[in-house]
Amino acid sequence: MSVVAPPPSLPPLRAARLQLHAAHQPIAVMRSDCHVCRSEGLSPRSQVLVTRGERQVQALLYQTDDERFPPDQVALSEAAWRALGLAEGEPVQVRHPPVLESLAGVRRRIYGRRLDAGDMAAIVRDVVQGRYTDVHLSAFLTATAALPLDADETVHLTHAMVEVGQCLSWPSPVVVDKHCVGGLPGNRTSPIVVAIAAANGLVMPKTSSRAITSPAGTADTMQTLAPVDLDLSTLRRVVEREGGCLAWGGAMHLSPADDIFVRIERELDIDTEGQLVASVLSKKIAAGATHVAIDIPVGPTAKIRSPEAARHLAARMQSVGERFGLVVRCLFTDGAQPVGRGIGPALEARDVLAVLRCEHDAPPDLRERAADIAGVVLELGGVAAEGAGPRLALETLDSGRAWERFVRICEAQGGLRTPPQAACVAPLVATHGGRVVHVDNRRLSRLAKLAGAPESPAAGLRLRVRLGDEVARGQPLLELHAQTAAELAYALDYARDAGDIVQVVA
Amino acid sequence: MSVVAPPPSLPPLRAARLQLHAAHQPIAVMRSDCHVCRSEGLSPRSQVLVTRGERQVQALLYQTDDERFPPDQVALSEAAWRALGLAEGEPVQVRHPPVLESLAGVRRRIYGRRLDAGDMAAIVRDVVQGRYTDVHLSAFLTATAALPLDADETVHLTHAMVEVGQCLSWPSPVVVDKHCVGGLPGNRTSPIVVAIAAANGLVMPKTSSRAITSPAGTADTMQTLAPVDLDLSTLRRVVEREGGCLAWGGAMHLSPADDIFVRIERELDIDTEGQLVASVLSKKIAAGATHVAIDIPVGPTAKIRSPEAARHLAARMQSVGERFGLVVRCLFTDGAQPVGRGIGPALEARDVLAVLRCEHDAPPDLRERAADIAGVVLELGGVAAEGAGPRLALETLDSGRAWERFVRICEAQGGLRTPPQAACVAPLVATHGGRVVHVDNRRLSRLAKLAGAPESPAAGLRLRVRLGDEVARGQPLLELHAQTAAELAYALDYARDAGDIVQVVA
């Protein structure tokens, strides 16, 4: 029998930057025969904890036998590199991550037991710390789809999602906000609603997201009109001066768990009410809102497809909101076809400008919908009597006060811009005459994305017809806008059977 | 408006070998600015289909800006490289994978609808083709844990798992087999049972797995006694000549979906009855068995913890087996403590040898348990009357016929070997006197793995006491075996509070 020494302290590895992009996934590449892999018994595709002083990040481990990777080195992806704030060659420690205690809650939930506030807090904390693998995240979201979150769990989840992020606070006792549950291309009412609310003296610090699966998010559209990547002090200054802003929310770190959950739900193509409520309300609570109008488009190819589902969602939004002292009012809107004419950042921005400037050919549906939502916001904010909001909203537009306020907000954010124009434009024409009876929102979005939206801000499409219109053979149904001929060709290729995307019946 | 060309056909990329190990996950690394990423609109961490002639593989895409990766190259991990059978610099096509149709079945299952045979076949086919991401796999397994697989679904899943792999067939009308549902360290009865069955004229082509989470699989233990990595023709020759074999099943490609599901279940630490039944039976059916004895250890730290759960599992194993014409008989065995004395490949092999050679200090519990299981196998195989199997099994051991047959099987597989001996051995002693009242199987396994099992075949531990034994202070409870002093030190460090692993009460 040998004499036994205490466990030796392992010498650190040198950090090397791998310049690998993996959509927020930290990755570590180490030689299979390095002393750490061997003594720690690390296997490929396991999780490791990489530590540099006080900072640490959990990473996915891959191993290599390639001589280009020295055995005393750990090569780190961009996400890991940034999280640790490293310089080339700095020493780091790599070891097994601690046991993931909160996973016991996920397992209990899989087997049908409910989660309390403590369980949810522990899960969400580990999620934002990057300790959940895709396997764990998918199990959590699947379990809460198989047995939907109840009201209490939705409150706990919302609370947990708020707690792990930053929270904004405002001196005003009333802070209004709006949100659309999405799924409807072109529904770009926020810039108009903010301009109307701020012009009427309300405080509306609107933060928006960039597109995730859609051809344009509000932040993408607004970016063609003004800078949106504001730091917190700029945002405060804009709101203080103009009453409202239209900023990108990404830099604010509001409800950071949401982005992680959304990525997995998108991959599974599942969308549950409980997650939706927690997602929307956690962001609004973290943004400091006290009164929120929620636009719920209902239609066969929108996210919410039936009036029953819409009513159930609205009731849950209101009841959960109440638990946080948040006043929520939902509007059910027509989700049968896109709003306005443009789909894509710049094309939607031009619709917004037309409405704000009261141009004679401004899309009437966008004007009307923005006025309805702004009306609810004005009523919630106490500057219009119940039922008088939409009229005040239209007056604010028609008097030019909304446009004037919008210009001032854009100037405060860094200057009003002119949306770009695409280099290549091609029409998609009707192959036969008849009446437009159906518009497929999902496939229209896909088409706009194939044309290059939102990465190319000028790309997308412009609808030339609406439901119920009579069209002749050869008449344009829509125009495709792209920056390159190749992208235009791809989109046209997809759209060959456009009869299905915009359905014309003789 | 520009004139539109048809979508250009993309020039291929050159394949480069990355030598990256990611536990079967094919990975492709491409420059962010390469023409394929740009024109296909590929985003990091998405799935791509890599094609070389007739062969294709679905891979996880990472992007890089590193100059060491040329923009006309795609660097591929070992799993992708092997799947495509590539040579350095060969041209490959990279594009979006086709839509994963079977995911609609997973989504329906999440929302509580049952899957039919066609759904299961489509899901399992896509799983073994590597088209399911971890997110999809986790969702499927979580959904079937939240709402357990019913009898029909278990049959459909078993059938689907058999169909996607290779199936062995044997000229004999009766082919016996055995399986242990696991969770009990040292329970290494297979070599003994095969020797007894073959010595009595039965056909028992036993294929076993290597350890997944345990300190030794039967294949790991057998490898210290004879070669186990047999190709199909060698396996057939061994069985033809000796009636039995003890081979590694990995090369046989039997039920390949199983390994994929097991990896995800392990990460989630969930284990459902339906998946367990489909896993065990699909492998037995694919191996060509007609009669199977299943050992179900029951105990507080075994996989199956209650008699009720064991009975339910046995009933499901039998009823599903029947649907495939498979005769299944289950034995409930004591799962309160390990079987035999050794835990780890070589240490278990020595217990097996002692029982087969009828050595005076052979572990009696291993002898008895192997005889019970072999008895059921002999009865199922029709060479012993009902109830007379265990006696015949013991006679076969005592007469030396089992040992003689075991030696012949090992010789046919390539030669009998002597299990290796560890370089470092250290005892773990009782910190106080008393009676052994509890043995934690899970933590014993962990301890043996920390000592280096199964990678170091000589590593592991040897129990010196059993439940109910009286021990004095300072008396060894177990011996740790390791190849290096460092590994021994790590294991001892973990075992500091060994009182909990082997609990002694005054």
TrEMBL record, chains A, B:
One Pfam entry name: PYNP_C
Alphabetized SMART domains for the sequence: PYNP_C
Molecular-function GO term, any one: 1,4-alpha-oligoglucan phosphorylase activity
InterPro entries in alphabetical order: Glycosyl_Trfase_fam3, Glycosyl_Trfase_fam3_N_dom, Glycosyl_Trfase_fam3_N_dom_sf, Nuc_phospho_transferase, PYNP-like_C_sf, PYNP_C, Thym_Pase_Put, Thymidine/AMP_Pase
BP-aspect Gene Ontology terms: pyrimidine nucleobase metabolic process; pyrimidine nucleoside metabolic process
Family statement drawn from the similarity comment of this UniProt entry: Belongs to the thymidine/pyrimidine-nucleoside phosphorylase family. Type 2 subfamily.
HAMAP family assigned to the protein according to its UniProt record, in alphabetical order: Thymid_phosp_2
Protein name: Putative thymidine phosphorylase
Organism: Luteimonas wenzhouensis
